[in-house]
Amino acid sequence: MSEPKKLFIKTYGCQMNVYDSERMAEALGGSGYVETQTPDEADMILLNTCHIREKAAEKVYSELGRFKGLKADKPDLKIGVAGCVAQAEGEEIMRRSGLVDMVVGPQSYHRLPAMEARARGGDKVLDTDFPEDDKFAALKTRPKARRGPTAFLTVQEGCDKFCAFCVVPYTRGVEVSRPVAQVLDEARDLVARGVREITLLGQNVNAYHGTGPDGADWSLARLIWALDGIEGLERIRFTTSHPNDMSDDLIAAHGECAKLMPYLHLPVQSGSDRILKRMNRSHTAESYLRLIERIRAARPDILISGDFIVGFPEETERDFEDTMALIREVGYGQAFSFKYSTRPGTPAAERAQVDPDVASERLSRLQALITEQQRSIQDAMVGRELGVLFEKPGRMPGQMVGKSDYLHAVHVADCPAEAGELRRVRITESGPNSLAGVLV
């Protein structure tokens, strides 16, 4: 038998890209590839890119430049660019980098085996279509190897919101939801291979409206209740949500479904109504705050996470102070915050930009407030008993590390628990980025 070919995948950006990289590796497994952790060993290198961060395309070209010597030493090495940068700039990537053999968008990665075969034949292959065939159905068979205790599962892709700063509608397409049966089959398969916690993924995951076995469109809440019935699945999470899609049944599920964890990532982006309108967010600061009240009424202990963009075009100091006021009122256990950077082709890129130094100073103030809130909520966990799903050994001998119900990292010394066990832990210490405790 011939030696298996080696595949190296570097993943950038969101959890959905992590999921996509897993599925791309599975797709190429049928062509004789096994994954390697180093590009030096690879027969194929795939960069699964993200277009959200600043200068995303330039970072891809910089990464490609590092492989120039490797390609010279191994002429048969094939290099591919996948993901959202590939979708947005596929032809330009092919034009600028002679190293690249394949460019594949996020809706076409089920075609990778055929693309790889063409590339082996000497072709340069570009596929950034939005095909009608279902990539998930094409990749429905997954290897039966054991998995870690947590897994991502994409249930929805694309976005119809067209926020003024965002490229997702152009790189991922319109909102599409996977059929319920397909999602449940994949979830059962993951659980059979050792997964205890599943995080449902989507650009707007709470806009999920997949077709159910009854022929009706199911909401995300109804899908969660179906997942709740899978024996062996202990925890359910979902991300990322839009405030406008937090339906009544989804809010109720947070208070009624024991497997749905008390953690919600609900981006608001700004606390200024003027800026929210310019962002085309279609909600106000007040409507967001009232939504948080309803969610906390259903689940009082829920930890709220958010996203913030600082220095959005035309943002004034008053607009920024409105954002700070909203943060103080909500009290975030976690948040992701960024200084605005332009995305070519988006409406906001054409507007008057905020001075970068002003934006940096505002970001520092916002992050200081978020850090203060995050640490306060984390410190309040000391003395409580939390559920912890252990995932792996820690750095110290005998130590195990897992995640709490609230997604905090938890370390337990001299721990007899194994990866995949869900145990009660009494929290004894709060560190800068994690908790420590003892088994109950």
From TrEMBL:
Q: Which reaction does it catalyse?
A: N(6)-dimethylallyladenosine(37) in tRNA + (sulfur carrier)-SH + AH2 + S-adenosyl-L-methionine = 2-thio-N(6)-dimethylallyladenosine(37) in tRNA + (sulfur carrier)-H + 5'-deoxyadenosine + L-methionine + A + H(+); N(6)-dimethylallyladenosine(37) in tRNA + (sulfur carrier)-SH + AH2 + 2 S-adenosyl-L-methionine = 2-methylsulfanyl-N(6)-dimethylallyladenosine(37) in tRNA + (sulfur carrier)-H + 5'-deoxyadenosine + L-methionine + A + S-adenosyl-L-homocysteine + 2 H(+); 2-thio-N(6)-dimethylallyladenosine(37) in tRNA + S-adenosyl-L-methionine = 2-methylsulfanyl-N(6)-dimethylallyladenosine(37) in tRNA + S-adenosyl-L-homocysteine + H(+)
**ATP-binding found in the keyword field:** no
Q: Which domain of life is it from?
A: Bacteria
Please list the residue ranges annotated as the TRAM domain.
Answer: 379-440
Q: Could you tell me what the cofactor note in this record states? A: Binds 2 [4Fe-4S] clusters. One cluster is coordinated with 3 cysteines and an exchangeable S-adenosyl-L-methionine.
| UniProt EC number | 2.8.4.3
Q: Which SUPFAM superfamilies match?
A: Radical SAM enzymes (SSF102114)
Cofactor(s) the protein requires to work:
[4Fe-4S] cluster
Under Pfam families, the record lists: Radical_SAM, TRAM, UPF0004
The UniProt record gives the binding positions of [4Fe-4S] cluster 2 as 159, 163, 166
Quaternary assembly = Monomer.
Sequence similarity: Belongs to the methylthiotransferase family. MiaB subfamily.
Role of this protein:
Catalyzes the methylthiolation of N6-(dimethylallyl)adenosine (i(6)A), leading to the formation of 2-methylthio-N6-(dimethylallyl)adenosine (ms(2)i(6)A) at position 37 in tRNAs that read codons beginning with uridine.
The protein's name is tRNA-2-methylthio-N(6)-dimethylallyladenosine synthase
Organism of origin = Sediminimonas qiaohouensis
